[in-house]
Specification:
The protein is an all-beta fold. It has a single domain, classed as Jelly Rolls. The protein contains no helices and 16 strands. It has strands at residues 12-13, 18-22, 29-37, 48-55, 70-77, 92-100, 110-119, 124-132, 135-142, 148-154, 162-168, 179-188, 200-201, 206-207, 211-212, 218-226. The strands form two sheets. Strands 1-13-2-11-4-5-6-7 form an eight-stranded mixed sheet, with no helix packed on it. Strands 3, 8, 9, 10, 12, 14, 15 and 16 form an eight-stranded antiparallel sheet that branches. β15 (211-212) and β16 form a beta hairpin.
Length: 238
């Protein structure tokens, strides 16, 4: 068990609203499971993206020719490039996506995603991302309503070695409350217990003590909290 972020963790604090885990490129991530609690609604206008995601590193297996893209179920407020989006400011909306704005490989650039669903403040969104062969399957289930959306995308064997929990604010808009993830489990193909300590956290972010399984394949974190710049905490860490 490692220390929580408020108990002497050596995780580097940088920026706001982002917690990251980095695995060795000698292995790769095979699944990410977490639950995102839908936060309070922001004021109308602006755009806000809240998401957990997986990305490759420059040294990841089969990094090229696809390059850097992100697998990400995105909880969205406002406008988005995602397919099927309502693009309004009345409700939170989520879909599973793959976004690649940096690469040039045919078939892998731009914003791709599956169907979306509107969700309510306080709903628990159970998110599961799993690798099956070379295809990543993303699933989001609203535990309150039972509704589910999903999206599968074949990355042709490109390894994912970077886990990101993010507040993405392209218009500068910030959330008005804590962004809470619970019951997070990251699984790797080979033992990598060192990856169970976050590499970076936002200045005001919090994570509970990470626990690595005995075989080093699973990293479990009971609670992560992201806080935007200038946004006061709306709840206790523990």
């Amino acid at each position: 068990m490692g220390p929580a972020s408020d108990a002497g963790s050596k995780t580097r604090a940088s920026g706001y609203g982002g917690i990251q885990f980095t695995t060795s490129t000698k292995t790769h991530i095979t699944s990410l499971e977490t639950t995102l609690v839908v936060p309070a609604k922001p004021t109308p206008g602006g755009t806000l993206f809240l998401w957990p995601g997986l990305e490759p590193l420059n040294g990841s297996a089969n990094y090229n020719p696809i390059g850097t893209g992100v697998l990400q179920p995105v909880l969205t407020w406002g406008g988005t490039c995602a397919p099927n989006a309502p693009n309004n400011y009345a409700d939170w909306w989520i879909s599973a996506q793959y976004v690649n704005t940096l690469g040039s490989a045919s078939g892998f650039t731009g914003c791709k995603g599956g169907p979306g669903m509107t969700v309510s403040v306080g709903d628990n969104l159970h998110i599961l991302m799993t690798l099956n062969g070379t295809t990543w399957s993303q699933s989001v289930t609203d535990d309150k309503t039972g509704k589910n959306v999903s999206f599968d995308f074949d990355l042709k064997g490109q390894a994912q070695n970077w886990v990101i929990f993010s507040i993405e604010a392209p218009t500068g808009k910030q959330p008005v409350s804590d962004i809470v993830f619970t019951s997070t489990v990251v699984t790797t193909a080979d033992s990598d217990p060192a990856a169970c300590t976050p590499s970076v956290r936002g200045t005001n972010d919090y994570f509970s003590a990470p626990r690595s399984s005995a075989d080093g394949l699973h990293c479990c974190v009971s609670k992560l909290i992201l806080r935007g710049q200038g946004v006061p905490a709306s709840g206790p860490n523990n």
